[in-house]
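Protein 1 of 2
SEQ + STRUCT:
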Amino acid sequence: MNFRTPLSALFPGTSGRLVTALVDHHTTEADKPLTLADLSERAAVAPAQLEAALFRLGLLGLVAPRRKGEVVRVVAGHIAWAALRQLTDLRERVIDTVRAHARAHLRPAPDHLALSGAVIEGTATHPADVLELIVVPPAAAPADWEQGVTALVTQLSRDLGNVVVHRCAHDAEEAQAMGGSGAVRVFPR
């Protein structure tokens, strides 16, 4: 999965770049109209290509009705903008997904679980870009606890569409050193 530009990855070409630019615009200045030149620059799409895509977005109600060449006004209250905005930054969803799957696969819970790598940093652009789990097993981990970690890694690799790997640390201090300053702690909260 491409976590840097997920909308463009899900909707390749003109449509993805246009929707990404419009979501950014909706987030920062939804009430302000966009000229075709400005939108063309933001989306890296030729103005002539924009018209057909804008027509389709108009049919969906995401942009206000307009004539060819007129400014573009997003329909700020359209229900789809919130969903599209969530797709532009998947970091919190990744954290929630890891937390939910860790609860299901790791019993008892780890003493420490942190995430690092391109996926959590939001820089992953290819399925081979990694999400790394840094795990400190609980002191009273059962003998089969490591199997739960393996199941967690397998499940997350499938659900995220990226390679997930793990490293075990002896304690939280070692885990923090492994993850560095950019690591995101999942357990304990």
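Protein 2 of 2
SEQ + STRUCT:
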Amino acid sequence: MIRRRAPGFWPLALVFALFVAFLYGPMLTIVVLSFQGPEGGLTFPLRGVSLHWFAQLAQGLGTVDIGAAFLRSLGLGAMVMALTVLLSVLAGLAFRKRLRGGQVLFFVTVASLIMPSIVVSLGIGLQFRLLDDGLKALLAWCGADALLEGYGSSLGLMTSALGAHLTWTLPFGLLIMFAVFNRFNPAYEEAARDLGATPWQTFRHVVLPLIGPSVVGVGMFGFTLSWDEIARTSQAIGDVNTLPLELQGLTATVTTPAIYALGTVTTVVSFAVMGLAVAAAAWMKRRRRKEV
């Protein structure tokens, strides 16, 4: 028998298709326009098809060092990913037991999600500037003139910018790990301890394989959220820029499809990270089934 669709299926399907087109249409447009020929412009119709603008991107866009900005964003994203995974897993393990003040700590951590990003960035930038003033006053009081002359600012890629990105990625990681451990069956750990496993062996050989796909997901969130972050980075980065900030600045000066080529490259990196995360999670699930 042929099963008929419900009367409301096609209207809902149309709404969903329009939503997908609205969500991914702009990204697809940028990808298509980035493959224009040397005479191409910033709008349709296409004027030829080539990799000309990607070659120009590799040569550089004016005074902006795209390669250096790319490596800075890559390094910052990797560090944010590692710290997000580590802190989220540790927090998930800690919150399995009742903690004094744990509820307040949880709400304080998650509160950064509802605060405007630019306000968080301004607050972190101000905090590190006050820290600079305190350090300079301390160096002057200690008579360390040589250190004082060479001291610039504590604002930087792996200091203030790293902290700003963690205020964005950690709440997502915590929420995921809390959900995972709320459904985790402690009987597996009890069985391991009954067989003589130490706490570390229990975590390594029992807990970690079971939560592995979720840990990979937390890492993916950490990297991708850091990779394209602008607002929280703008006031807390110091004297260097990440790739998204350089891309934002180039939109006012670059009037060729090279800007679209840069957007395509950043999008490909994001999708590559998501693809690796999905592949790693699937591999962990298959390996766990074989072991069982």
